[in-house]
Specification:
Order of helices and strands: HHHEHHE
Radius of gyration: 15 Å
Strand content: 5-15%
Helix content: 40-55%
Pfam family, one: Pyr_excise
Organism: Isoptericola hypogeus
Largest sheet: 2 strands, parallel
Shape: globular
Distance between the termini: 13 Å
Protein name: Pyrimidine dimer DNA glycosylase/endonuclease V
Strand order of the largest sheet: 1-2
InterPro entries: Pyr-dimer_DNA_glycosylase
Structural class: mainly alpha
Amino acid sequence: MRIWSLHPRHLDRQGLTACWREALLAQAVLAGRTRGYRNHSQLVRFRAAPDPVAAIGDYLWGVAAEASDRAYSFDRARIVDPPRDGRPPAPKVSVSEGQLAFERDHLLAKLRVRSPERAAAWEADPTVQVHPLFTTVPGPREAWEKG
């Protein structure tokens, strides 16, 4: 399971669809609808949020927005947490600069193999954007990250 801290715009088609699937699985775990993956390290930061289901819901809305920008059809009805119409978004979840650097390098390695044009474009403008749910804080790679 890879729930990227990076903005979904950095993902290629395969990465975006995998992220959507995996975040839906994370939502099922956090909502108590499945027993698999309960101890997955990627869920630590969502569990630490005041409302884990709202946090993963906001994450999914961010992925769905990127999918819409690309004219993909992701089924938003699968998101447990409804649109926030006037309600404040879930509180931001922190992610360290070291984690973002790790994820950037990890994703670039994948993109060089399966989407070299996207990798080249990102290397030409190496700005790292973060998913709207997250806020960047100083620090090394997150303790929950494996690899």
